[in-house]
């Protein structure tokens, strides 16, 4: 089970709700993924006006925990304001802190991210913080009290997969809160690899919504996360330079 703050989840796949070709495809993809946490950008949705299109309106929201995010924020103050807006709508007390510091790479601003995380923790939010794969920053965010650290596997929407497995491994080894790999996942093999390294969960959007068949990819991601976790828990054999016989030398027929 995945424990985030005081909430427990059976699925370790967190799914974004944006950029699907249609509401129907989105609904089917969410269903087959069996994700229990759905994330969305508060700034890109009118959550108060019932007349406005809402990407979540086709879903039975009683089945899910919603994870609003602060995408679009450039400062801690903006992120806090967005989080308060989400909380005022009574969607959830969980928030994904995302503050972009570079428009080209979409990498997060570490200083504003830390500031916003601390402010929202003081206000009683369950804080999940999107960050780079900076090992020291990840540790400092945990020390500040965040409920989950969310390092990017590679730049947002790039589909490059895990480009720095060593840093990701370091973050996982030192963490006592969930490490949820967020951003850059492109294929099911990327998700499985991240989970095999010991990640507690995967958050993705474009890898599913932008796939040729989003519904099939959603199912593939579900299975990849599950198999990667099982592989990690089972413990892989060590890598060796030379071959090792799979059959014993004793009791051989002469």
UniProtKB/TrEMBL annotation:
It catalyses: [ThiS sulfur-carrier protein]-C-terminal-Gly-aminoethanethioate + 2-iminoacetate + 1-deoxy-D-xylulose 5-phosphate = [ThiS sulfur-carrier protein]-C-terminal Gly-Gly + 2-[(2R,5Z)-2-carboxy-4-methylthiazol-5(2H)-ylidene]ethyl phosphate + 2 H2O + H(+). GO terms for biological process: thiamine diphosphate biosynthetic process. It holds the Pfam family ThiG. Residues 3-248 form the Thiazole synthase ThiG domain. Its EC number is 2.8.1.10. Keywords: Cytoplasm, Schiff base, Thiamine biosynthesis, Transferase. CDD domains: ThiG. 1-deoxy-D-xylulose 5-phosphate binds at residues 157, 183-184, 205-206. The active site is at residue 96. Pathway: Cofactor biosynthesis; thiamine diphosphate biosynthesis. It is found in: Cytoplasm. One of its GO terms (cellular component) is cytoplasm. It is an enzyme of class 2 (transferase). InterPro entries: Aldolase_TIM (IPR013785), Thiazole_synthase_ThiG (IPR033983), ThiG (IPR008867). GO terms for molecular function: thiazole synthase activity. Homotetramer. Forms heterodimers with either ThiH or ThiS. Belongs to the ThiG family. Catalyzes the rearrangement of 1-deoxy-D-xylulose 5-phosphate (DXP) to produce the thiazole phosphate moiety of thiamine. Sulfur is provided by the thiocarboxylate moiety of the carrier protein ThiS. In vitro, sulfur can be provided by H(2)S. This is Thiazole synthase.
């Amino acid at each position: 089970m995945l424990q985030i703050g005081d909430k427990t989840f059976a699925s370790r796949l967190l799914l974004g709700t944006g950029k699907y070709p249609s509401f129907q495809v989105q609904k089917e993809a969410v269903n087959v993924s069996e994700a229990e946490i759905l994330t969305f950008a508060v700034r890109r949705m009118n959550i108060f006006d019932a007349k406005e299109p809402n990407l979540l309106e086709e879903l039975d929201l009683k089945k899910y925990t919603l994870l609003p995010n602060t995408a679009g924020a450039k400062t801690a103050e903006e992120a806090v304001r967005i989080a308060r807006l989400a909380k005022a709508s009574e969607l959830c007390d969980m928030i994904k802190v995302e503050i972009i510091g570079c428009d080209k790479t979409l990498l997060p601003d570490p200083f504003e991210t830390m500031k916003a995380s601390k402010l929202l923790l003081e206000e009683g939010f369950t804080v999940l913080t999107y960050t780079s794969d900076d090992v020291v920053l990840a540790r400092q965010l945990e020390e500040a009290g965040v409920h989950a650290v969310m390092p990017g596997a590679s730049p947002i929407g790039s589909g490059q997969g895990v480009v720095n497995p060593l840093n990701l491994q370091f973050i996982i080894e030192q963490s006592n809160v969930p490490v949820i790999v967020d951003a850059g996942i492109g294929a099911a093999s990327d998700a499985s690899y991240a989970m095999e390294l010991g990640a507690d969960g995967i958050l993705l959007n474009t890898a599913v919504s932008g796939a040729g068949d989003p519904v099939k990819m959603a199912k593939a991601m579900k299975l990849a996360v599950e198999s990667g976790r099982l592989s990690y828990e089972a413990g892989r054999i060590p890598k060796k330079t030379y071959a090792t016989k799979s059959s014993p030398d004793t009791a051989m027929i002469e």
